[in-house]
Design goal:
It contains four helices and nine strands, in the order ββαββαβββαββα. It has helices at about 20-30, 45-50, 90-95, 135-145; strands at about 5-10, 15-20, 35, 40-45, 60, 65-70, 70-75, 115, 130-135. It is elongated, with a radius of gyration of 22 Å.
Length: about 200
């Protein structure tokens, strides 16, 4: 339980990190953060400890008490946003393309997809967001070193660099807890891995 996830917000209630429950309790106890409930009210360690734990609430046993598990905390002093660099990586392309072949439209697992240069490198194509797409093995073989229209293929959508910034710190798993949902309505939270180079 102590290694389970807690969402960390900056002072503007913007998600910036995911930490462990153990670390969240340390931050609460030291005054670096406050717990946030479902109504977005904030609590210091003592006031959070005084909240009654309902039967259906997640709880953790501490010395001499049982406390409700905070699933969201807000930092008391940090108001900046983390740097939002969208890395040009294989996983980010797969996420942008929703694990879907951009030629036939089939949704597959990542292991059943590869990357394809829309304009082949042998014909001057660059390794950029605007020229690399996810493709299934069959479409990739069919296209070969040709342009899509030369192979009788058409792109599902024109590839472009994502406009929204990824969530920091490699957060990929989606919204794990209902308490997190209100804080993810304005960001796309999926990007990670090594940046590709031309």
């Amino acid at each position: 339980m102590l290694s389970s996830s807690v969402l960390v917000l900056n002072r503007s209630f913007f998600p910036i990190h995911v930490t462990s429950l153990k670390r969240a309790f340390c931050m609460l106890y030291s005054g670096l953060a406050r717990a946030v409930d479902k109504e977005c009210r904030t609590f210091d360690f003592n006031s959070w400890a005084e909240l009654s734990v309902a039967v259906h609430d997640e709880k953790v046993g501490l010395v001499g008490r049982v406390m409700k598990v905070p699933r969201v905390i807000i930092l008391t002093a940090y108001d900046r946003l983390p740097k939002r660099v969208i890395k040009f990586s294989r996983i980010n392309i797969m996420i942008r393309d929703r694990n879907t072949c951009q030629y036939c439209g089939t949704k597959l697992s990542r292991s059943q997809l590869n990357l394809d240069h829309v304009v082949p490198r042998s014909r001057g194509g660059k390794t950029t967001w605007e020229n690399v797409v996810a493709s299934c093995f069959d479409c990739n073989r069919k296209k070969g070193m040709r342009l899509p229209h030369e192979a009788g293929l058409k792109l599902v959508k024109h590839p472009e660099k994502p406009k929204t910034a990824p969530f920091a710190n490699g957060f990929i798993g989606g919204v794990k807890y209902d308490e997190w949902k209100p804080f993810f309505n304005i960001i796309d939270y999926s990007y990670w891995n090594v940046e590709l180079e031309e």
